[in-house]
Amino acid sequence: MTNIHPTAIIDPTAEIDDDVVIGPYTIVRGNTSIGAGTEIASHVVIDEHTSIGPDCRIFQYASVGAAPQDLKFKGEVTHLKVGRGTVIREFVTINRGTGVGGGITEVGAENFLMAYCHVAHDCKTGRRVILANNSTLAGHCELGDFSNIGGFTAIHQFVRVGDYAYIGGKSVVVKDIPPYVISAGDRATLHGLNKVGMRRSDFSEATITELKRTYRLLFRIGLTLNEGIERVRAEVNQIPEVVAFVDFIQNSSRGITR
């Protein structure tokens, strides 16, 4: 307990590993757990039923695990889980889940949530997701692994964003964003593949070429999505990334950004 500032208020039911650092005036409420190596700055509130993984950094004035901003929430027990190595910067707000939405909000491992971001109830983010300053997720959003959300972007409730997708700043996203693409705008439209992001993640040129062929058939030659999917299955090598691209589109309930 020597790493906890004497002005911090810690509920006796909180489970805190010995080497956790907690700064002045921070509040940790009951039924919470904080993993080894995590550092929490001053004036942070960790609300009830929140689990924070090891090696996270939470900066001053963040609100982590507060009750959801949902009129359907009636005080039921719901949860927030924050994955290992995640960075939560100043004034970020992350809400717990709702009973009708599955009961849990999940922030994946090694996420980077920049200042003033909001993650609403029942959202789920994958591994190494980046939310730039002031980006906002409405309820029930899902962000894939390595997705990157530009600053001041607003994402509509229930929208899914695929793996390795990049959304430019100040965008408004109302439909699902497929994996591996660049999108931007109000309302967001597609602007090609995220080739820079894929190369930085060591995608082979052969894989990128197959994804380019897939993107062209789906979005560039005037076919319907069903027609494009048929052509992709007939003409493109069915590597895992191509299969994931098509599966994401077929499993969309909100519709696909074009």
From TrEMBL:
Question: What protein am I looking at?
Answer: Acyl-[acyl-carrier-protein]--UDP-N-acetylglucosamine O-acyltransferase
Q: Is the keyword Acyltransferase in the record? A: yes
Q: Supply the enzyme class, top level.
A: transferase
What's the main place this protein lives? cytoplasm
Which PROSITE patterns does the record cross-reference, listed alphabetically?
Answer: HEXAPEP_TRANSFERASES
Encoding gene (name): lpxA
Q: Which family does it belong to?
A: Belongs to the transferase hexapeptide repeat family. LpxA subfamily.
Its biological purpose is as follows: Involved in the biosynthesis of lipid A, a phosphorylated glycolipid that anchors the lipopolysaccharide to the outer membrane of the cell.
What catalytic reaction does the record list? Answer: a (3R)-hydroxyacyl-[ACP] + UDP-N-acetyl-alpha-D-glucosamine = a UDP-3-O-[(3R)-3-hydroxyacyl]-N-acetyl-alpha-D-glucosamine + holo-[ACP]
Query: Which spans of this chain does the record mark as coiled coil?
Result: none
Q: In which pathway does it act?
A: Glycolipid biosynthesis; lipid IV(A) biosynthesis; lipid IV(A) from (3R)-3-hydroxytetradecanoyl-[acyl-carrier-protein] and UDP-N-acetyl-alpha-D-glucosamine: step 1/6
